[in-house]
């Protein structure tokens, strides 16, 4: 079986959606979290998933903590990484070790609204349409080749909260689907 790690920093709703997916074509063997106290850590505990929590501030450089992470990934035999609300750029260490094996989900139609609070960015800009993107990760912020996108309309009387709910519903369905497509080589 293919073993994968999820990297997350926050609430972990996408982590949960991946865990709950039927016939996922890999085993989620590790959660990596850079935010001690994040809700996603409790979620992983409930699923009995080993969890690596680290505080980036305790390391001299990104390559130092990525080398530490890499040792754990090797220990668990991880061959794929799925970023699910991991709010940190991936550095050379992991990009080199996991070339074309790192996916990210982002709540906008990239290249529009990269970075933090993409839902709020689209809403505040008065966009009529936004959505969800899943892409291969490179050194940039929410850049890298897009694999799949699904659009979500912003309604006349929308609120950020309602929009976020609809976007996350799309995320939770799209991420496991795309993971399975990528793992079964159905993506160019
Ligand atoms: C998700 O909406 C994800 O797309 C976004 O963070 C949220 C995490 O929610 N990621 C980014 O903005 C990446 N730039 P979750 O912790 O409930 O899965």
From TrEMBL:
Enzyme class per UniProt: transferase
Keyword Plastid: no
One GO CC term, this protein: cytosol
InterPro entries from the UniProt entry: Formyl_transf_N, Formyl_transf_N_sf, GART, GART_AS
Catalytic reactions of this protein: N(1)-(5-phospho-beta-D-ribosyl)glycinamide + (6R)-10-formyltetrahydrofolate = N(2)-formyl-N(1)-(5-phospho-beta-D-ribosyl)glycinamide + (6S)-5,6,7,8-tetrahydrofolate + H(+)
Biological pathway: Purine metabolism; IMP biosynthesis via de novo pathway; N(2)-formyl-N(1)-(5-phospho-D-ribosyl)glycinamide from N(1)-(5-phospho-D-ribosyl)glycinamide (10-formyl THF route): step 1/1
Residues at which N(1)-(5-phospho-beta-D-ribosyl)glycinamide binds: 12-14
Highest taxon of source: Bacteria
Any one GO BP annotation for this protein: 'de novo' IMP biosynthetic process
Single GO MF annotation: phosphoribosylglycinamide formyltransferase activity
Active site: 106 (proton donor)
Domain (Formyl transferase N-terminal) ranges: 3-179
Residues of the site described as Raises pKa of active site His: 142
Keyword vocabulary terms for this entry: Purine biosynthesis, Transferase
Family membership: Belongs to the GART family.
Function: Catalyzes the transfer of a formyl group from 10-formyltetrahydrofolate to 5-phospho-ribosyl-glycinamide (GAR), producing 5-phospho-ribosyl-N-formylglycinamide (FGAR) and tetrahydrofolate.
Protein's name in the database: Phosphoribosylglycinamide formyltransferase
Organism ancestry: Bacteria, Bacillati, Bacillota, Bacilli, Bacillales
Gene that encodes it: purN
């Amino acid at each position: 079986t293919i073993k994968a790690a999820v990297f997350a920093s926050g609430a972990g709703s996408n982590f949960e959606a991946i865990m709950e997916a039927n016939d996922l074509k890999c085993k989620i063997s590790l959660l990596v979290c850079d935010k001690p106290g994040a809700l996603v850590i409790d979620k992983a505990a409930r699923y009995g998933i080993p969890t690596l929590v680290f505080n980036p501030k305790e390391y001299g450089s990104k390559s130092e903590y990525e080398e530490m992470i890499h040792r754990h990934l090797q220990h668990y035999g991880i061959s794929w990484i799925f970023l699910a609300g991991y709010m940190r750029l991936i550095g050379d260490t992991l990009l080199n070790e996991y070339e074309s094996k790192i996916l990210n989900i982002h709540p906008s139609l990239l290249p529009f609204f990269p970075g933090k609070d993409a839902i709020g960015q689209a809403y505040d800009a008065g966009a009529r349409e936004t959505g969800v993107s899943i892409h291969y990760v490179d050194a940039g912020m929410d850049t890298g080749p897009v694999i799949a996108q699904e659009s979500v309309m912003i309604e006349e009387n929308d609120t950020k909260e309602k929009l976020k709910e609809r976007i996350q519903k799309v995320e939770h369905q799209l991420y496991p689907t795309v993971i399975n497509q990528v793992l079964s080589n159905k993506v160019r």
